[in-house]
Amino acid sequence: MKQVALLAPLAFLALGACANFRSAAEPATVAPAPVEQKRPNIIFIMSDDHAQTAISAYGTRIGKIAPTPNIDRIARNGALFENSYVTNSLCGPSRATMLTGLFSHLHGFTKNGQTFDNASWNWVRALGQSGYQTALFGKWHLNYSPQGSGIDTWAVLDDQGKYYNPDIITPEGKKVVEGYATDITTDLTLRWLNEQRKPGQPFVLMMHHKAPHRNFMPAIRHVQKYIGTEFPVPTNYFDHYDGRPAAAAQEMTVAHDMYEGHDLKMTTKAGSRELRFNPWTDDFNRMTEAQREAYFGALQPGNDAMNRANLNEREMAIWKYQRYMDEYLGTVAAVDESVGRVLDWLEASGEMDNTIVVYTSDQGFYLGEHGWFDKRFMYEESLRTPFLMQYPGHIPAGLRVAAPIQNIDYAATFLDYAGLPARKEIQGRSLRDVADGTPPADWRDAIYYHYYEYVRGPGNHAVSAHYGIKSDRYKLIRFYGHVNAWEFYDLASDPDEMHNRIDDPAMQPQIARMKRRLTALRQKYRDDGGPAVTDALASPAAIARGQRDAESAAGLHHH
Ligand code: SGN
Ligand code: CA
């Protein structure tokens, strides 16, 4: 398998050489024999904030109730990566990592609100320069547009993107496109495949959905989909965060921090359409009258019943969780349809066998675990991100990959599949051998993580900066800047990360060993500078600096 693909870029030369040996009897006009192995197309599908726990192929509790049959097709056709992680669980940093193969501190985009330098090396441009046609549709969110990134054709959502009638930015400017963002992004993708793709030339096509990102608005056809479905409340939904000061300090609970109007679409009283707290009115104001009527009409019976029920605090927290799941999973339904439309196109066009399809997200998300929505923390639900990849004939169908992978690996992977030389600056490794089902003996056995953005307020969640290491069994996290503390988890006995064992005498040998491994990883990835270098807790000066940073960012930050 490997040899064939490595030879791919040489196939053209090889054909030329063969011509010299053509027998005199053969007419000179004969068509060249079909090239054995073409360079594969790559369709990279990414959603925003899609938790592994909301994908049925991952075998999750939610997946059973709200299946994703089309995303699951990728798992059946190819590989599902059971241990897929991000390096910094936040949109901008994650996207920059996927493009460059670098941890946040080396590509420089550590927190949202910063600007990515589109001129930086990225793997899409590299493939473009080697002969690929390249295109991107949907969310970019690294700066205003992909101008200068080397991507041939693009049309992107403005900033975070709106669900209804979004502003779309193209090289010609910005305009409102009527419709639902997930469908518009898919339509642009399919139109490019049908009308702009140059048959015979390999392509990279990126389809980046806004969904299921906040404020969780399903398409009209899906608003009703989960109303009345009862989702099991996570066992740690009412977490008290004992022994976990950073978790206690966050502002991201479904019960208290979600915007009751803007996110949960709760009304003020029975019979009324007036929304509760709705700080960003543009999401609803930009809908057409018909869209608003259909959307809020569908939610009205539930809102009226809730307003009449006089729920106590605990009942209200559970009601909000159910509404959150209805809406979040409602947006996932359109993403799943979108994946189905692209896979159907591949089947119908005959390009399936020569195309790598990836489905991933910019990070995971909390679906009520610890009482939360959002991400950022190095706890499992937001550290994990879905990763499924098919390449018929190259990746065994139905493979489950246990080897730990991270989003630093994608750039190396695509260079490898495209037959391009490895790039030494990249901090990840090609997934090719892992995806063959034969992980190399020296594959990583632990992953490194570093989150930087501390901004207070329910729009930004007040998660203290932290870094850490996860091995197959243990996780060690060091919070610094705002909250200053270490945490240690034994995932074998405590998969939900409820018991910080950092002071447990029985764990001290494992903790000491993990601290040594963490130091080694920080050196390996060249992240051993800055305020959090040593195993000692941060100095008061470093903490003050972290707080100043956070406060100035809060002034700037919204989306
Ligand atoms: C906005 C949201 C946050 C979200 C970030 C980052 N607040 O700031 O809830 O965590 O985006 O999301 S809101 O008040 O504007 O809704 S990310 O996916 O771009 O990283
Ligand atoms: Ca995101």
TrEMBL record:
Organism of this sequence: Tsuneonella litorea
Protein name per its UniProtKB record: Sulfatase
Signal peptide coordinates: 1-24
InterPro entries linked to this entry: Alkaline_phosphatase_core_sf (IPR017850), SGSH_C (IPR032506), Sulfatase_CS (IPR024607)
Molecular function (Gene Ontology), one example: hydrolase activity
Superkingdom of origin organism: Bacteria
Alphabetized SUPFAM superfamilies for the sequence: Alkaline phosphatase-like
Spans annotated as Disordered: 538-559
Keywords from the named record: Hydrolase, Signal
Keyword Chaperone in record: no
N-sulphoglucosamine sulphohydrolase C-terminal domain boundaries: 368-524
One matching Pfam family: SGSH_C
Family membership: Belongs to the sulfatase family.
Gene3D superfamilies noted in UniProt: Alkaline Phosphatase, subunit A
